[in-house]
Amino acid sequence: MTRGKRSADAIVIGGGLHGCATALHLKRSGLDTIVVEKDYVGRHASSANAGGVRRLGRALPEIPLAVAALASWHRIGELVDDDCGFAVSC
Hints:
90 residues, two-stranded parallel sheet, globular, 9% strand, 2 domains, 3 helices, alpha+beta, single chain
């Protein structure tokens, strides 16, 4: 995704959690994607949520998805050229 670009296969309006996730999946599926955000990506409500990355305390059917999500977070820097503030705590 390039700043200032004017055309793409897909345009995502909003750079919050859902917009960025949508853009990531579109890009990974091979579509040239633009995120349009009025301010800074990942700010406002998305930056103030109390989300966490965990495997413990999940219902059994959720565990494979939680494991896959955790693996994605560990390589988030490779995916989007930013660590997104992800830090592992013990």
